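Bug report (template v2)

What were you trying to do?
Predict the complex of my protein with GLP.

What happened?
Run completed; filing so the output is reviewed.

Input:
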Amino acid sequence: MKIEIIDSYKKISRRVASIVARQIIYKNRSILGFATGSSPIGTYSTLIKMYEYGIIDFSEITTFNLDEYYGISEDHFQSYHYFMNTNLFDHVNVNRENVNIPNGIGDPKTICEEYNKKIDSCGGIDLQILGIGRNGHIGFNEPGVEFDSTTHLVELKKETIEANSRFFDSIEDVPKKAITMGIKTILNCQKIILIATGIEKAEAVFKTVRGKISTDTPSSILQLHPDITLFLDEEAASKL
Ligand code: GLP
């Protein structure tokens, strides 16, 4: 695992955006894996600026998002479809036919099988961006997840529902289930970037880097990935 400790969120965002931009320039048909949550928002706004300045072109890339809440529609203001549209896709020239986010409505088995097939048919993901939950979840792979899982339906843990309730009008409105890419799918990505900032992520970061590899902390499995870099601020890195 490589670790970069950077002193501000803005600088982390610029650094990560520059890696994504390099990937797009290096291979204009890149398969990019995107995450939601507050951690990558700065990266996305920097990528939008790079697009506006004519530095990068999204027209040939394909994207796969990690996850989506199950039971809410694409146009719900807290769906991850909505998040990606408002924070990135509406502002760049990505071809919508090449944007993939799990459906939040429909038969979960079919949704998961189709998502797995689509990722496989593209030959896997070149570069995946990850955030991390306070309990070490990646995507929505909660503690107890099978390490050999592919896209699947999950029951969200109480602590995840509580953490994510800040985005909803009330905790009752937070979906209790989600569809997420599995751990095996994430491990299969060529290159992974994980962004974590703030003191509330320090414990999860510690367990990711120095903890025993265990499904109790799903992110600990990332220790086995050959090309992963963690971009941390000082608070998130404070327990290392
Ligand atoms: C959600 C997402 C994760 C994300 C996590 C942390 O649960 N499913 O992919 O990493 O939140 O979010 P944040 O970056 O807002 O702390």
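What did the reviewer find?
The radius of gyration is 17 Å. The mean pLDDT is 97.
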